[in-house]
Specification:
By secondary structure, the chain is an alpha/beta fold. It has a single domain, classed as Rossmann fold (3-Layer(aba) Sandwich), CATH 3.40.50. It contains 6 helices and 9 strands; from the N terminus they run H-E-E-H-E-H-E-H-E-E-H-E-H-E-E. It has a 7-stranded mixed beta sheet with strand order 5-4-3-6-7-9-8, with helices on both faces. It has a two-stranded antiparallel ribbon with strand order 1-2. Strand 4 (about 105-110), helix 4 (about 115-125) and strand 5 form a beta-alpha-beta unit. The longest helix has 19 residues, at about 20-40. The radius of gyration is 17 Å and the shape is globular.
Length: about 240
């Protein structure tokens, strides 16, 4: 993959406060997303990135929320052979499956939602990757000892601040001031092997200033590895390395 980006100490984007109409649009989208998709009561079969998935209730749905598919397409360009990988906030597990397809022989699919950890393991088995992808219920990386163990850490955390209504809404809202992902970068720094990398996807609607401070405070440098624009926002995928 060509590298034509500049390394910076923190994400080279600034948060832009949204006006009233933009906030109303975002609230409208969340209202219908929550009631029609996030809070559904039955499992749904779908296909994303070439994987057949069964998405349990309360689990983030990668078919309707496009960030997962964009992350998968990015991983398809990476060579992860012999890499130990963890996908933090795995949801359906599709990003973890893509990491295995990219060559990783050990992928942990971690999520605070136990339904997601089960879902990821089920989807791994359904796609012939059950020997390489393992679902684990974990609040970020807290279930793992704070020592270097992962070569690659992946995460597409909730993109918006605000108190989640329930377990299903945790895929959208990360708590006030992104409380639920506040420790992600410090935990990743402790558990990253020498020479390892972190790939994290945020939205142009996320608080980029806050994410930038967290990344810098944890001792990472960052670069924009890929950006995907859709109608209402952009998904920004950062590559983090230890300074």
């Amino acid at each position: 993959m060509p590298d034509n980006t500049t390394v910076v100490t923190a994400p080279d984007r600034r948060a832009n406060p949204h006006g009233f109409l933009r906030r109303c649009l975002r609230g409208f989208i969340h209202f219908f997303s929550y009631h029609l998709i996030l809070n559904r009561q039955s499992a749904q079969a779908t296909q994303v990135g070439g994987f057949k998935l069964n998405v349990r209730p309360t689990v983030f749905h990668p078919r309707f929320f496009l960030s997962s598919g964009r992350f998968v397409s990015f991983l398809d360009d990476l060579d992860l052979r012999d890499k130990v990988v963890i996908d933090v906030g795995t949801g359906s597990g599709v990003i973890a499956l893509a990491a295995a397809r990219a060559g990783s022989t050990t992928v942990i699919a971690a999520d605070i939602n136990p339904n997601a950890a089960i879902c990821a393991a089920e989807n791994a088995r359904a796609n012939g990757l059950g020997d390489r992808v393992h679902g684990v219920a974990s609040n970020l990386l807290a279930a793992f000892a704070p020592r270097p163990m992962f070569d690659i850490i992946l995460s597409s955390p909730p993109k918006h601040a605000g108190e989640p209504r329930d377990l299903a809404d945790r895929g959208w809202h990360a708590g006030p001031a992104y409380r639920d992902v506040a420790n992600l970068f410090d935990q990743a720094r402790e558990r990253l092997n020498p020479g390892g990398k972190v790939y994290v996807m945020v939205s142009s609607d996320s608080d980029l200033d806050l994410f930038g401070r967290r990344i810098q405070q944890a001792g990472f440098s960052s670069r924009v590895a890929r950006e995907y624009s859709i109608f209402i926002e952009s998904f920004i995928l950062y590559e983090l390395t230890v300074q």
